[in-house]
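Schema walk-through. Below, the input block comes first and the output block second. Nothing else is stored per chain. Lengths vary across the set, and this one has 731 residues.
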Amino acid sequence: MTAPAAGSLCGIWVDRDGTVHLSHRTADGGRLASSVPLRPFAWLAEAPDDGAFAGVEVRPLEGEGAFTWIAEAESLSTYDALVKSTRGGWACDAVKPLESQHLLRERQRLFADVSFGQLRRCQLDIETDSPDGSFSDADKPEDRVLAIGLRFGDRDRTLVLAEKTDAAEKALLEQLNAVLAEEDPDTLEGHNIFKFDLDYLRRRAKRLKVPCAWGRFGQRAKFRSSRLKVAERWIDFPRCDLPGRTVVDTFLLVQLYDISTRELTAFGLKDVAIHFGITPADGGDRTYLAGNLIHQAYTDDRPTFLAYLADDLRETKGIADRLLPTYFEQVKTFPITLQEATLRGTTGKIDLLFLEHYFHAGRATPVPPEVRPFEGGFTRSFETGVFKHVLHFDVASLYPSLLLNIGRNPVNDPLGVFIPLLKQLREYRLRYKRLARESDDVEERAEAAARQASFKILINSFYGYLGFSGARFGDGELAAEVTRRGRELLQGLIDELQRQGATILEADTDGIYLSAPDYFEQPEQLLAKASAILPEGIELEYDGRYDAMFCYKAKNYAIYDGERITLKGSALRSRGMEPFLKRLSDSLISHLLGAGGESPADLVVQYRDTIPAGKVAIADLAKTEVLSQNPDAYERFIAGGGKPRRASAEVSLRMQPPPRMGDRVSYYILPRQKGQTSDWQRANPVGEYDPLQAPYDPKYYLKKLEDWVTRYEPFLDAAKLGPTEQQGELL
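--- output ---
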């Protein structure tokens, strides 16, 4: 074993012999390796028989709980045997993965004194080719990796296939190994890097007998099937773990980001880059290449081919710049690796903090309690229509503030960790929030802003943790008490704001939107009057003002700040909406909010004329959806009797080259034929549109238009007028 090196931890990996390999940052920004022995441990519900496990020390823990014993093993093999013998039920509880176990025991954190700018990052993107023009398949001998794009900071190191031979491709893969060993990055970042780039490279490397030596400490990559829950759906992917490094998949991060914002209409690299402003909406100088033209560019126009790859890397870095700092800051709080931070739910992270306190205090730990259903938070829409002079007030961290105000720890937390920990995190957040606002150093402000955002997420997660059935220290009754007080507090605020002359528009635990012409220029006056009724420790914040707000229905509204319109709710911004309907909706909302643009009423008349005449561009009618399955997997699903059949999936079966899961597929609806009762039977790829041989169905799209008119008819006349002082009487 080597002695621990000085400097912050930047990487950790536990091998099968029970050695902890560590990578430390040196004073000049380099990385230095060291190793120490692992001392694995587990909590037990009862002590094993004397002599049952040689090399295991078992000692009792103080207090009551399900796990009243702690077992510490001399070796990893002994530890594995112990854990295996206790499988089933709640006989044993252990921290996973072993890297987290070591960090917890030693009370260490990754990147503790490293700024985000000091992180050694690498973005990766590959371009591939199939000679027959179909979608490139790594298992086909003749398919190739054409190039591997790598970006380190502002430096691109693009590795290009010299010629289309096995020897040249093998040399390319070996060159990748050498560059990663030389540059020694902490992270490997890519968009859909798990499902495509790394998996494709793995399969080519296997065929050409090249080790995937992408990890630190001379180690190879490890692959396994995994899944990530995003809201109500699961995403399956081939996970890649690199010993001592972190794989960051921005394709997954943007979907996690969109759970709360609901702003993204697609998750592809180019769409997300435009959404975040990394690339201008009109494309700017960005190089675009259709998939079927990449091979031609590689052969005949190498500068364009390389520019396209460089732009992919630039956009990947830009997205990671935006989303990764929150997770980077989390590893400074939790005993967890950066890769686990991006792929693990908040409940598991908070559990680790509790377990760390209980482990070092020598206290017994509980099993997750049963949490009964309880009434949720306050959510109510008060008005429908268009309103001017809109203010947004927010109760700062409402539920965490109420928890601190109540001051009661969960029933399963006899050590009293919960409230002090919440208070500490809140103090950290306020400190960094102040620093982000007041620091004269641009980099320090950015770092502080990322930290306060991370702490805000953690703080707000403490309430959700209480009510989650899988949380060891959960407490459903305390969670119910918090929501009850939250409802009472918000109702009290609403009553007071109405007493002061405000019109309440929308209210929930995220804040209150209200129309208040008399206070629009001095919102702090209304803020002060409303804050007077709040209990100590609960703070109301002014969070912005808007020229106008369109309230459509509960949790579906649009706000306009004079420059930008922001939409909330799936009814106003469905990802699957056809472009012509989106154009209508956007123009309606723009008119209602006084932001100008086309007249929606005129557009309706125009579409009523042009749709039957076959004069609408097919791109305006086509529906675009993201494939949730690869075409071959969908085909097997249907052959096995699976339902329902999906139009986008049916279309994907006829496309060449075939798209893959996660790709966007555009299709339109053909005129109905005898025996056709469902849309999937009439769906046709946009690429096969022919106004004579394969026209769109005008009746289908006219019905779509009239359904839209019926839905928004009460607002169409008002759209010509723009927002009035109060237009709630529209309905």
